[in-house]
Automatic annotation (TrEMBL), chain A:
SUPFAM superfamilies: MoaD/ThiS. It comes from Segnochrobactrum spirostomi. This is Sulfur carrier protein ThiS. It holds the Pfam family ThiS. InterPro entries: Beta-grasp_dom_sf, Mopterin_synth/thiamin_S_b, Thi_S, ThiS/MoaD-like.
Automatic annotation (TrEMBL), chain B:
InterPro entries: Aldolase_TIM, Thiazole_synthase_ThiG, ThiG. CDD domains: ThiG (cd04728). The lineage of its organism: Bacteria, Pseudomonadati, Pseudomonadota, Alphaproteobacteria, Hyphomicrobiales. The gene is thiG. 1-deoxy-D-xylulose 5-phosphate binds at residues 166, 193-194, 215-216. The active site is at 105 (schiff-base intermediate with dxp). Coiled coil: none annotated. Residues 13-258 form the Thiazole synthase ThiG domain. Homotetramer. Forms heterodimers with either ThiH or ThiS. This is Thiazole synthase. It is an enzyme of class 2 (transferase). GO terms for cellular component: cytoplasm. Transmembrane segments: none annotated. It comes from Segnochrobactrum spirostomi. SUPFAM superfamilies: ThiG-like (SSF110399).
C-alpha cells in the first residue's frame, strides 16, 4: 500500500505499523510514531492496521533548545 | 562556593530538587564534543532536547541520544516548531515515550518571524497535557493573565521569555518580569529565551527568578564551553545577590564614608 512516511511517499506491504517500521529499516531504532497527527504508542503498533494514504511520522531524539 | 550553594539552596521542579539553576539547550553547537564540553562546564543538571524526523537509513538521532545519556543529565523535551494544540499534544506524547519523562517544555508558536508564543493555544494545550499526566513547563510571554491561566491549568512551573528566542537581547521588560515574580511568589519561574550575556542571566536571578534557560548564547559563542562557565558563575552570582537582599536604587548621592570627624570641618 502507499503511505507517506516523514513527508515522502513510500510503498509498504504492511499490514500494521510495527511491520511497516521493520520494513522501512527502523527495527532496532528508538523512535516515536504518529499516524495522521495522532500519537501511536509502541505497544499499539502491532495492532494498528495501516490504510492507503496514511500519513506516518517517525521521530527520534534531536538537539533542541 | 558552588558546592555550598548547590547543596544548601536547591530549586524544585515538580518535586525534583536540583542544585543548578541553569538549564541549557543542546542545539546549534559546532560539534557533539563541544556540546558535551559546554554542558559539563555549565554545571547544568537539565538539558532541553527535541524530536525530529528520523531516516531508517541514517539514524542521526540515535548517536545524539547516546551522547545525552552519557552526560548523565535530566532531559526536558520540547515541542519546538509546533503551531497548533494538536501538533503540540501529539509531539509531547511522542516525547514522553522516547525520553521516558513526564516533563515537557511546551511551546506553541503563534508567529513564525518572532516565534511569539500563541498563548491561547498554549493554555489549551497545557490543560490537555496536565490532564494526561504531563508535568508541563510552558514557554510563555511575560503576560500576567496568561501566567494566571497557565497556573489554573495545572502548570507548576512557568517559563516567561526575556526576549524572543535567539535574539540575545536580554530582559526586554524587567518591570513585567518583576510583576510576574510578585504575582506568583511560590511558583518556580524560569526566564527562558532571549538571554545573550551572563549579565542578563544574573539580572534575571537578581529579580528573584528561580532559574534561567538558554541555548544560543552559549552554542553560538566563539568558545561555548568558556561561555557556559561564565553563565554558571553569573547565575550563581545573581542568586546569591537576590538572597543577600540588595539595596534600593536612589536618585541622590549618599556618602559611604562617615561624615563625622572629617578634617577641616567644624
Amino acid at each position: 500500500m502507499k503511505i507517506i512516511v516523514n513527508g515522502e511517499a513510500r510503498e509498504v506491504a504492511g499490514p500494521d505499523l510495527a511491520a511497516a517500521l521493520d520494513e522501512l529499516g527502523y527495527g532496532d531504532v528508538v523512535v516515536a510514531t504518529a499516524i495522521n497527527e495522532a500519537f501511536v504508542p509502541v505497544t499499539a503498533r502491532p495492532a494498528h492496521r495501516l490504510a492507503d494514504g496514511d500519513v506516518v511520522e517517525v521521530l527520534a531524539p534531536m538537539q533542541g533548545g | 562556593m558552588h558546592d555550598s550553594l548547590s547543596s544548601g539552596d536547591p530549586v524544585s521542579f515538580y518535586g525534583t530538587e536540583l542544585g543548578s539553576r541553569l538549564l541549557i539547550g543542546t542545539a546549534q553547537y559546532p560539534s557533539p564534543a563541544i556540546l558535551a564540553e559546554a554542558v559539563r562546564a555549565s554545571g547544568a543538571e537539565i538539558v532541553t532536547v527535541s524530536l525530529r524526523r528520523e531516516s531508517g537509513r541514517e539514524r542521526a538521532g540515535q548517536d545524539f541520544w547516546r551522547l545525552i545519556r552519557e552526560l548523565g543529565v535530566k532531559v526536558l523535551p520540547n515541542t519546538a516548531g509546533c503551531h497548533s494544540v494538536k501538533e503540540a499534544v501529539a509531539t509531547a506524547e511522542m516525547a514522553r515515550e522516547v525520553f521516558a519523562t513526564p516533563w515537557i517544555k511546551l511551546e506553541v508558536i503563534g508567529d513564525a518571524d518572532t516565534l511569539h508564543p500563541d498563548v491561547f493555544a498554549l493554555v489549551e494545550a497545557a490543560r490537555t497535557l496536565v490532564a494526561a499526566g504531563f508535568q508541563v513547563f510552558p514557554y510563555t510571554t511575560d503576560d500576567l493573565s496568561v501566567a494566571d491561566r497557565l497556573v489554573e491549568a495545572g502548570c507548576e512551573v512557568l517559563m516567561p521569555w526575556g526576549a524572543p528566542i535567539g535574539t540575545g537581547r536580554g530582559l526586554m521588560n524587567p518591570y513585567a518580569l518583576r510583576s510576574l515574580r510578585a504575582r506568583h511568589p511560590d511558583i518556580p519561574l524560569v526566564v527562558d529565551a532571549g538571554i545573550g550575556l551572563p549579565s542578563h542571566a544574573a539580572a534575571a536571578m537578581e529579580l528573584g527568578y528561580d532559574a534561567v534557560l538558554l541555548n544560543t548564547a552559549v552554542a553560538k559563542a566563539g568558545d561555548p564551553a568558556r561561555m557556559a562557565g561564565a553563565f554558571r558563575h553569573a547565575v550563581e552570582a545573581g542568586r546569591l545577590a537576590f538572597l543577600a537582599d540588595p539595596i534600593d536604587a536612589r536618585d541622590m548621592a549618599a556618602p559611604s564614608t562617615p561624615v563625622l570627624g572629617t578634617a577641616f570641618r567644624d
